[in-house]
Design brief:
The chain is an alpha+beta fold. It folds into two domains: 3-86, Glutaredoxin; 93-204, Glutathione S-transferase Yfyf (Class Pi), Chain A, domain 2 (Up-down Bundle). 51% of the residues lie in helices and 8% in strands. The protein has helices at 12-23, 45-50, 71-81, 93-107, 116-126, 130-152, 167-181, 190-200, 203-208, and strands at 3-7, 29-32, 58-61, 66-69. A four-stranded mixed beta sheet has the order 2-1-3-4, with helices on one face. Helix 1 links the parallel strand 1 (3-7) and strand 2. Helix 1 packs parallel to helix 3 (71-81), helix 1 (12-23) packs antiparallel against helix 7 and helix 4 runs parallel beside helix 7 (167-181). Bound molecules: glutathione (GSH). Glutathione is lined by residues 11-13, 35, 40, 42, 55-57, 70-72, 107, 115-117.
Length: 217
């Protein structure tokens, strides 16, 4: 198959790309990279040749001879290279910028500080307990969701930006999944929860969910 996605079932960044591929109705080969087993397969020499960042996802498009990391770059590439079916970013510059802003609120300001390697580092270097790690995640997700809720208030419809699924929803759904996993109280964020529920009514989102991946345990 010409499209390949190296990912991990619970990785929110991999989850984003799976949603985008499904919305675009693109067939792809899913290659699991276990983030915990064997000391973390993302750190293997073989995987580092593909992605020196030691993170998933990595996406390969053999048709275009391109290997990409960074989920947002991958998704924007898919949107431009495969314009059929659905556009994940709006047509007009102002709308597009706002959707990117919402997506980056999650992908740049929430997810990186709650990533596995950050949590491992605070455990190792600062002896944080499991409870303290949970509090850390709760703090950053709550801060981020407060900001996001304020920003989506005026323009959210069925989805984060009006009535069309966009890159913003693609980032919101995996982040909510992750928040639930860490026990974040979502009752404070009804609009985000509603968007999550509306997205999960769509097959593209359901099929991308962690539990539906071949490497889910
Ligand atoms: N900015 C990157 C983030 C990638 C990332 O943080 N991936 C996580 C899983 S969601 C990972 O591979 N973590 C492995 C580790 O922390 O060792 C993207 O959007 O693709």
């Amino acid at each position: 198959m010409s499209l390949k996605l190296y990912g991990y079932w619970r990785s929110s960044a991999s989850y984003r790309v799976r949603i985008a591929l499904n919305l675009k109705q693109l067939d792809y080969e899913y290659i699991p990279v276990h983030l915990v087993n064997n000391g973390g397969e993302q750190k293997s020499e073989e995987y580092q040749r593909l992605n020196p960042s030691k993170l998933v996802p990595t996406f390969v498009d053999d048709n275009a001879d391109i290997t990409l990391s960074q989920s947002l770059a991958i998704i924007e590439y898919l949107d431009e290279q495969y314009p059929e079916h659905i556009q994940l970013l709006p047509k007009h510059a102002q709308d597009r910028a706002r959707v990117r802003m919402l997506a980056q609120d999650i992908a740049c300001d929430i997810q990186p500080v709650t990533n596995l390697r950050v949590l491992n580092k605070i455990k190792l270097d600062h002896h944080a307990s499991d409870e303290q790690v949970k509090q850390w995640v709760d703090y950053w997700v709550t801060e981020g969701f407060k900001a996001l809720s304020a920003k989506i208030k005026t323009r959210a419809g069925k989805f984060a930006y009006g009535y069309q699924v966009s890159l913003a929803d693609i980032c919101i759904v995996p982040q909510v999944y992750n928040a639930q996993r860490f026990g974040v109280d979502m009752s404070a964020f009804p609009m985000i929860q509603k968007i999550y529920n509306n997205c999960l009514a769509l097959e593209a989102f359901q099929n991308a969910s962690p539990e539906n991946q071949s490497d889910a345990t």
